[in-house]
């Protein structure tokens, strides 16, 4: 009689195997890069550096995906309504994770590439957007006034005969 394995146990084993393989892959890539550098193999070093960089970019994707940020598109049409949304979006597009990812993409442009690479430091925290309170809109000094309306003209009255 065989040993029965539940679906959750099978999935847990698969997850552990995946995580082990993933960790080993990073180690293999790092070792391959170091070997290429020590052997002064420009093509292998550049190719491996790009693979490491691409993996780092892929791992950081989840930090900058806009749907993960919880942004809700405002329904209004005025600038004031959109100001909070645009400010929050600006934080996401100019934050630490964006600068980190830009530095990763710029690695091949570094002086000394592929033998001397200055790897960017991964931001230490997950992107958290702080809601920004829009500045209050000042009340208008004078409310708009409707244009004057001429009073209706009464039709002429027929004289009584």
TrEMBL record:
<feature type="region of interest" description="Disordered">
    <location>
        <begin position="130"/>
        <end position="161"/>
    </location>
</feature>
<dbReference type="InterPro" id="IPR031893">
    <property type="entry name" value="Phage_tail_APC"/>
</dbReference>
<dbReference type="Pfam" id="PF16778">
    <property type="entry name" value="Phage_tail_APC"/>
</dbReference>
<feature type="compositionally biased region" description="Pro residues">
    <location>
        <begin position="134"/>
        <end position="161"/>
    </location>
</feature>
<protein>
    <submittedName>
        <fullName>Phage tail assembly chaperone</fullName>
    </submittedName>
</protein>
<feature type="domain" description="Phage tail assembly chaperone-like">
    <location>
        <begin position="46"/>
        <end position="123"/>
    </location>
</feature>
